């Protein structure tokens, strides 16, 4: 079964794609938590950070390089932004297709809410 993000990457599901290359695709989050909230997703299905292998080194690096380019494109590079990758239950991961959140456009606030 393809993930919901694979369906977005293939065009089967609609989305607002802001960046695409041979290794990753980025689109706006459907439920944005900041003025800029973009998900950067490997084109290849990798469920979580735990599933990355040494062969995925270029993909892992590309997530960061794409984030840098998109931040510039969105005009938020200088003011700053936050990159988040959630892993499994305790990390709060909801979609099991690895993705990096790019959040900016306002001060994002404390890194983690204290409980
Ligand atoms: P996670 O909690 O797995 O790190 O984040 C999943 C993110 O995917 C959430 O921020 C959620 O709003 C977003 N999301 C879930 N389904 C869709 C969808 O169909 N389209 C888009 N653009 N974003 C989605």
Notable characteristics:
alpha+beta; binds guanosine-5'-monophosphate; 3 helices; single chain; globular; 115 residues; HIT family, subunit A; 25% helix
Structural commentary:
This protein is an alpha+beta fold and about 120 residues long. The protein has a single domain (about 5-105), classed as HIT-like (HIT family, subunit A), CATH 3.30.428.10. About 25% of the residues lie in helices and about 20% in strands. The protein is built from three helices and five strands. A five-stranded antiparallel β-sheet has the order 1-2-3-5-4, with helices on one face. The chain is globular. The structure holds guanosine-5'-monophosphate. Guanosine-5'-monophosphate binds near residues 15, 27, 92, 93 and 95.
Topology, element by element:
Blueprint: H1 4-10, E1 17-20, E2 24-28, E3 36-42, H2 57-74, E4 81-84, H3 88-91, E5 100-104
Antiparallel strand pairs: 1-2, 2-3, 3-5, 4-5
The structure holds guanosine-5'-monophosphate.
Distance between the termini: 36 Å
* SS-based class: alpha+beta
Strand content: 15-25%
- Per CATH, the superfamily is HIT-like
Share of helix among residues?
25-40%
Short description:
The chain is built from three helices and five strands.
């Amino acid at each position: 079964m393809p993930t919901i993000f694979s369906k977005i990457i293939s065009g089967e599901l609609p989305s607002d794609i802001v960046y695409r290359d041979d290794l990753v695709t980025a689109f706006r989050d459907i439920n944005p938590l900041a003025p800029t909230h973009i998900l950067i997703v490997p084109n290849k299905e990798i469920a979580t950070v735990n599933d990355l292998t040494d062969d995925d080194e270029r993909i892992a690096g590309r997530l960061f390089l794409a984030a840098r380019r998109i931040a510039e494109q969105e005009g938020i590079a200088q003011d700053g932004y936050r990159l988040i990758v959630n892993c499994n239950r305790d990390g709060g991961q909801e979609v099991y297709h690895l993705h990096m959140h790019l959040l900016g456009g306002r001060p994002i606030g404390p890194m983690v809410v204290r409980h």
